[in-house]
Amino acid sequence: MHDPAAPLDLLLLPTWLVPVEPAGVVLQEHALGIRDGRIALIAPRAEALRHACNEVRELPGMLLAPGLINAHGHAAMTLFRGLADDLPLMTWLEQHIWPAEARWVDEAFVRDGTELAIAEQLKGGITCFSDMYFYPEVASELVHKNGIRAQICIPVLDFPTPGARDAAEALRKGVALFDDLKHHPRIKVAFGPHAPYSVSDDKLENVRMLADQLDANIHMHVQETAFEVQQALDQNGERPLARLARLGLLGPRFQAVHMTQVNDDDLALLVESNSSVIHCPESNLKLASGFCPVERLWQAGVNVAVGTDGAASNNDLDLLGETRTAALLAKAVAASATALDAHRALRMATLNGARALGIDDCTGSLEIGKFADLAAFDLSGLAQQPIYDPVSQLIYASGRDCVKHVWVGGKQLLDQGRLTRLDEERLGAKAREWGAKIAAPRHN
């Protein structure tokens, strides 16, 4: 064990400290101390300053909170941002996104797109993200190199995909990646069968068997649209979630992404199985997919996290903005102004995300012993004044431009709004190069 008398590596002195657990607490005149990458001290300011410490940083006007957790996205799709806007989901997928992926997605695309996504997310206060995309081994290299935390999902579909001739090859490579990274402090490898309509029963049974053997998560788009549910009922007389339950996929390691269509039977299955739901309100709004009944799920005891989805359907990776949308939309959907209040919205974007990804024992809240995954939000701007409840001002009156500092495992990855490990100019130039190439007319 660490020597509790050893000096702290860093002592942070924010105006407000919001631990998220216990719920609803806002600490003023408090400090947070970091030692060996973990939270070693949370104490009143005067007491904390008596501890030996290698570095002390004042964070005036700032709210220190757990880093945000983007529980669903497709990182490399930043390079398709704005490519096919204002279209319904299946038209968007079948006529635009899948053909573009077939033409453009290779290791270089995934490398440049994922790095751009990591940079955008860190600048927005995100310390951990879930990624479901092709060439997952490339994405994991970039997560390792750039210091962020992630769940990397192995994509599984019925048809050949970039990087895998078939589902069997995707799973084989996925298991190898899982073995390579099983002791990595910041990366968890999960299985990502795309959706019930794109993965057959035999492949889902393989996924379930492997996930059980490896104690791995399963991350899947489920009941994203009314069309998907109706099509499943027409074809096999069963709702997609009921089929997944019958195949044994649901459980505490299952992450159901979207779930805009929820009836009483679906709700009962989610509650009984202790599955998590990952809510992506802006993608659902933009694609007119429907509304996830967040308050109803929450009140029933379902763990609901929040994700941005990919930049091709959102079009940003702004989890703070996403959380505000989630809070506002929850009220409209529940027809209740008390639905998903600001404190619960912040919990959804932090601790609930960690719980969905199975890492709530080590991140997602500010508690002694957890990794120092932190974001400092500057609430000193005119648009946030006056401050009655800093968490309300964060959720309802702040944009991601107020993110000033980010630490992951005690390492500072954003300092005064500047990335410490990534070259923004290089990333921007690379993205523009890809844009010019993808937009150019094709000559046969």
Automatic annotation (TrEMBL):
Keywords recorded for this protein, A-Z: Hydrolase, Metal-binding, Zinc
Any one GO molecular-function label of the UniProt entry: deaminase activity
Transmembrane segments: none
Keyword Secreted found: no
InterPro entries: Amidohydro-rel, Metal-dep_hydrolase_composite, Metal_Hydrolase, MTA/SAH_deaminase
Name of the molecule in the record: 5-methylthioadenosine/S-adenosylhomocysteine deaminase
Annotated SUPFAM superfamilies: Composite domain of metallo-dependent hydrolases (SSF51338), Metallo-dependent hydrolases (SSF51556)
UniProt cross-references to Gene3D superfamilies, sorted A to Z: Metal-dependent hydrolases, Urease, subunit C, domain 1
